[in-house]
Amino acid sequence: MIFLSMNLVDGDFCVRSHSGPLWGRHNPNTLNTTHPVTTLVLATLAADNNEWISDELSDLLGSSTNLHTAIYVVDNPLAPLHTPTNKGHESLAYLSYIIDFYSTLPEISIFLHGHPSAWHNNHLLNMSTSEMIRHLNREKVLREGYVNLRCHWSPGCPDHLHPQATAFDSTKTEELHIAATWTDLFPEEPLPPVLSQPCCSQFAVSATAIRRHPVEKYILFRDWILQTPLSDYITGRIFEYFWQYIFLSEAVYCPDPRICYCDGYGVCFEDPEGYAGYFELVMEVDQLKKELEAWARFREGKLGGRAVRDGDEGPDPVVEGGDAREGWLEGEIRGIEEELERRRGEAFEVGRDPLRRARAIEMARDLTMVDPKDGPPFWTAR
């Protein structure tokens, strides 16, 4: 477990490990266009193991690359950086950071959960939080002000919360509370018909975008979370779909995933259809893995007399030869995974070339991504 302390000395912001060296010191007001001064803002629990940060990002942390950390603990009031209470999921930690450091914000703040990987991270970045940090195009954050770190649409896009809804939806339990909350937090602004962005409250924001509002606005947001009778879960879910409005004044923020990957992380497919092709292979290998797992369960006596293939009851191993089938599945999975890694490597190569990268973005823009009759394509949900 890494224990951190935060000091403010002569306007400098220090993060120190009690068991290790100084992680970094910077003056947040010093502009560096090559490596914009960036702070990773993590919402964590006291029980979380944060060693992945130094294990996976040690080469990036420190003064030379201007990458630093502010780790908030939501359930330990004695932690150097902590929230008033544990409510609102990550939102209270994020708002506390903005309030605490409003006058000395770095050029970019990256708001994250405290996990090294998560289902809602990006598939083409191996579901890895550190890979998202490592490959994030900080210039894009400065240019646009706000970047949702998740490229895939589902859940959250393209048409998610309807603030004027009157019927309860068990998949969007916060929806019926949006209208009243909006009146509390944005009393002079009209209620939008839709609120949408990719889940799950991980994003990067420029200091300029944060300072669109005075610090008193963020204090209002935090006080509302502390005082509302709504639950921890509901308040967190509400803010999950408010962040894009807070920083951009946009109710719907659903960028094309291909452009998100390419412009945001340098993972670019010169043929825009190559993105869909990649995820077709992902779906294929996922299905093969499910079948392989079913054969293993059969061998362990957990499936009665049959294995499962393609989501249904499959062949009798005695008749079709389970060992041979398992060997074939393992070979197919290995081959597809090698092909996926090859395509992923090619996508990074394209992203490293400014001309090819720009061409890939333009080609993606030229394609209609969503067919209104069929809904969003399957690969926006991976």
Brief rundown of the structure:
By secondary structure, the chain is of the alpha+beta class.
Separate helix tally: 14
Structural class label: alpha+beta
- Radius of gyration over C-alpha positions, nearest whole angstrom: 23 Å
**Unreliable stretches:** 1-33, 309-319
Share of helix, binned: 40-55%
Secondary-structure element pattern, one letter each = EEEEHEHEHHEHEHHHHHHEEHHH
* Structural domains: how many: 2
Distance, first to last CA: 32 Å
How would a crystallographer describe the biggest sheet?
A: 5 strands, mixed
Walk across the major sheet and give the strand order. 5-4-6-8-7
Give a verbal description of the structure.
It holds the Pfam family DUF3431. InterPro entries: DUF3431. It contains 14 helices and 10 strands. Strands 5-4-6-8-7 form a 5-stranded mixed sheet, sandwiched between helices. Strands 1-2-3 form a 3-stranded antiparallel sheet, with no helix packed on it. It starts with a strand and ends in a 17-residue tail after the last helix. The chain is 40% helix and 13% strand. It folds into 2 domains: 252 residues, no CATH class; 108 residues. Helix 10 runs antiparallel to helix 14 and helix 11 runs antiparallel to helix 13. The chain is of the alpha+beta class and 382 residues long. Strand 1 and strand 2 form a beta hairpin. The radius of gyration is 23 Å and the shape is globular. The N terminus is likely disordered.
